[in-house]
Amino acid sequence: MLEIKNLSVTYPNNVKALEDVTVSIPSGKLVGVIGPNGAGKSTLLKGALGMVNRSGSVAFEGEPIEKIQQRIAYVEQKGNLDMDFPITVLQCVLLGTFPKLGWFKRPGKQEKEISMDALKRVGMEEFANRQISELSGGQFQRVLLARTLAQDAVLIFLDEPFVGIDIKSEGIIMDQLFKLRDQGKTILIVHHDLTKVGKYFDGLILLNKRLVASGEVDEVMTHDNLAKVFGEGAFTDIGGN
Ligand SMILES: Nc1ncnc2c1ncn2[C@@H]1O[C@H](COP(=O)(O)OP(=O)(O)OP(=O)(O)O)[C@@H](O)[C@H]1O
To answer: Looking at the predicted structure, is the pLDDT value of residue 238 above 70?
Structure first.
């Protein structure tokens, strides 16, 4: 169980991005974080990870989240990532093995095998020696997932992984995420496409600075909840009831 209690985040410019959010996410679930622009979705991930100043507490399986930092994978929004960084696809995936290996040891044969296997799982093994700057957005996102697979994380946070990517990459990524979920990993994804939430997620967290609703997809995607945060009429084509 990932337990977020009374999480509040105020940025240095005094923007209150999150106020007193308390939510529990059962382990082994694939959960979507939804809400309008500026609702604090990215901040929820960053606050839970302690990347921004926060108050409140976050625990995973009863332990403070800081204790399992090496077993957490976080992929931030693509717009914030530097695709021009001069490394190859394989080197990028190998980075996933570093926390376990210890930062000052060089990756060896075993780490390369783990990384190549991860690349195979996302259909990117042929690109191993290509520079990441030479990938499409969808291919890059698959490589980032391969890095997560190589890391063998128990808790996976992805911020808008499907923005601007091709449908094939999205399908490959979702297949791997379903597999990770079935292996018992806990996965939190910031997602804005409400039409797919029923297909993709076991549960949802609906945010609008505060927690509006959380639970099974059907419990969260109600007319009332959606109208509250997106406004009347915004939900007619997304299957709200
Ligand atoms: N580093 C920062 N410094 C100051 N304010 C910030 C910072 N990051 C985010 N904010 C503000 O905090 C609020 C929540 O931002 P956040 O990025 O968490 O929202 P979001 O729900 O992920 O939005 P979007 O759907 O647009 O990506 C917004 O008002 C935003 O402008």
So the answer is: no
Q: Which atom of ligand 1 is nearest to the CA of 190?
A: 22
Ligand 1 contacts CB of residue 169 (under 6 A):
no
207 dihedral zone (left: phi>0; alpha: psi -120 to 50; beta): beta
Q: For residue 104, is pLDDT > 70?
A: no
Interior/surface letters 138-174, b for 16+ CB within 10 angstroms, e for the rest: bbbbbbbbbbbbbbbbbbbbbbbbbeebeeebbebbb
Query: Does the beta carbon of 17 lie inside 6 Å of ligand 1?
Result: yes
Does the pLDDT value for residue 240 go beyond 50?
no
Mean pLDDT calculated for residue range 207-225? 95
Q: Does 11 score more than 60 pLDDT?
A: yes
| pTM of the predicted model as reported, rounded to 2 decimal places | 0.91
Q: What is the pLDDT of residues 219-232, one digit of tens each?
A: 999 999 999 998 87
**Closest atom, ligand 1, to C-alpha of 40:** 18
Atom of ligand 1 nearest to the CA of 9: 12
Domains within the chain, CATH numbers bracketed: 2-82+153-230 (3.40.50.300)
